[in-house]
Amino acid sequence: MQQRLFYTLFLLWISSASFAQIQSPTAFMPHPYMEQFTPHHLLVDYVEYVAENSPRVQMIEYGRTNQHRPLKLAFISTPENLAQLEAIRINNLKRTGLIAGEPDSSLDRAIVWLSFGVHGNEGACSESALAILYELVRSDRADVPKWLNNTIVLFDPSLNPDGYSRYTHWYRNASPSVPDPNPYTKEHNEPWPGGRVNHYLFDLNRDWAWQTQVESQERIKQYMNWMPHIHADFHEQGYNSPYYFAPAAKPFHDYITDWQDEFQYEVGRNNAKYFDQNGWLYFTRERFDLFYPSYGDTYPIFHGAIGMTYEQGGHSRAGRAIIMENDDILTLADRITHHTIAGISAVEVASKNADKLVEMFGAYFDAASNNPQGTYKTYIIKGDNPAGRIKGLIELLDKNQIRYGKATRAGSVKAFDYQTGKERNIRVADNDLVISAYQPLSVLTQVLMEPNSNLEDSLTYDITAWSLPYAYGLEAYATQQQLSVSEGYTIADPAATAASPKAPYAYLMKWHSMEDARMLAALMKTDIKVRFTSAPFELEGESYAAGTLVATRADNRKMKQAFDRQITQIAKTQNIQLIPVQTGFSDKGHDIGSGLMRMIDAPKIAVLSGESTSSYSFGHIWHYFEQSLDYPISIFDADDMGSIDWSQFNTLILPEGRYRFSESQLDELNGWISGGGRLIAIGWALSSLEGKKGFSLKRYASDEDERNANNAREIETMSARTNPYDGQERRWITNMIPGAIVKLKLDNTHPLGFGQEDYYFTLKTSSRAYQLNKDIWNVGYVDQDPMITGFVGHKAKEAMLETVVFGVQDKRSGAVIYMVDNPLFRGFWENGKLLFSNAVFFVGMDQ
Fold first, then answer.
1. How large a percentage of the chain has pLDDT more than 70?
2. How far is C-alpha 114 from the chain's CA centre?
3. pTM of structure
């Protein structure tokens, strides 16, 4: 007892001595903190300095960004808690069921994760991280040690270092020594692409579940290692907005528990107490809803936590000081101060409710494993789906630690058919991938897999549908019946190339998934000549669909023996099955030497970027080529189109954007396409081409249709003259599609549809619509009675019937590919990537 008392007193003495030496950010920084933005390397320096000098802090580096900046995570608590940090972590995971074993109540602690700066140009967030860190380690606060006795704070000061650095370096270069609060000056108007996004121009706050980006991938590993009870995500909004904190706005996802809803009010009341004392404006229960599963508040909620967003007015426009609409000046110091109070409040409310947080957290996971709340209890992915697509889904499930396996017994069940939207009896086979809702991450499983989430209010902040079977293009079913599942599912490695007494006549490769597209990209980079079949055929007793890749010895005879060695090595690296054949004489259909076997001209790709383009859409394309496909592109600013040597390229991609093409540029573009070029235009880029000379795309199929549409709009406008002011937002959304899944009719005999069924589920994120056009191939289109998942305004639905979504216009030796919907949206729509690969490699090659 005496030894323990001495040890405690010694710790207190050491803590006191160390705390006295901790410098505030103001004392540490070479610039006036709160008056100028802190470069990321100095932000890291300060957190490392505190971790080295305070016994309340430990820190790890959990990854690196694309630009090799460090991702840091600090752990803040009492020295006693930090001494048993690993035991506390494992104990918490036992309570979730992710680790087997009974939890020890003596190790129970409230675990709070504070995340700053997921949007890099919301600069006050990472700045406030420094102030909050200092408040939690300084020695002259009597309240903090009491809170930390039963609380662990996980602390990520910058989730998006590349974006934060882009913004802060630009601002330091653009702003004068004395800030100018005039909102129209240069320092308040950040240039393209802005610091909100990461290196690949992705919005990391929409990437939590999909984990397409390295920052998300590395962060979620740590998140799953800890499973916090509270997660607070710090943001900024328009500079005239008062501060926002929980409780959140409707709609809530159905699977959010009453406890999670109620505790948001607890957090809000505690914040309000401090904001009231200071006379600061704030609002709650508006704008920021809890429906889309891939936010920094909803993703934690679907892991049993209390997920929250804190939104300070400011954003990139605010700079260091800006005049607001009330003629007051909002300063960087104001923004940091507000976030600091909110962050400290979150730690306080967690500590004061620690026992209840732990209790309800455990109850959440007990219910998840034993009594899942959703309609469907088991999800079935048929084992005869293309292996590459199943593998892609498994990779995402693994990232999210969702368990899966095989049914312990084959049999017949009644199930919802994702392909038709109807129920029918199916047989569960031995090789089917089966995902049970009876598991620790039951809620996340159901949210990501369920065919249609219930939307209690159509006024939502983001897309309203995302079901993974549609995103991955999988034949899938969901049943209300619980099936027994044995964990683990192995996809057989591709069969080795069969030994042959003589060299094969050709190698064939099937075309079903992005694995196949990566194989083709690798062959193109190695200068191996490849053809694709534009029609089905049978050879040596095997059937091959249109899109099958064919590498013949005749096309590659200059390579001699290196041909076999290189193609087999690439196939091994890419995990692709090569099918060697000894003859080109088909059993049925065309021979390998037929003109229907089209030679693939290696794409030489130019992509436009810059102010005319959507940074998000450009980022989707950039990431697709560099990370998904591993294929080179050349990037040009849209304003520099006149400097492009068109003879060096056979493919041009227009991301979503608003282009101001001159008549001479359009003439040059038309000439290049007619000479064999391929133009891929996405989303709003189509408006720069529609109705223009040389381009067949039109909003209406005929002049009469256009007149009828104009007349209908005029009648609607006249009838709306006496509409009340109240309700205008709800009337407006009848014309909107915030993000819904729509089943298209797809012509899979066209190269753009190769590898697909005769339908395709598109993620439609705008109400832009073009009637079925003449003079183009309407490859993917909405019919009169489409299957829809998610919210579509009733007027928008009427307008999209019988409209083209993916179309191709042949122009002599070239082609224009029109993509009304973005198949690369946020990088998680895997089947869209395959469709886009068709546009890159196949379309226009059949001329």
1. 95
2. 21
3. 0.94
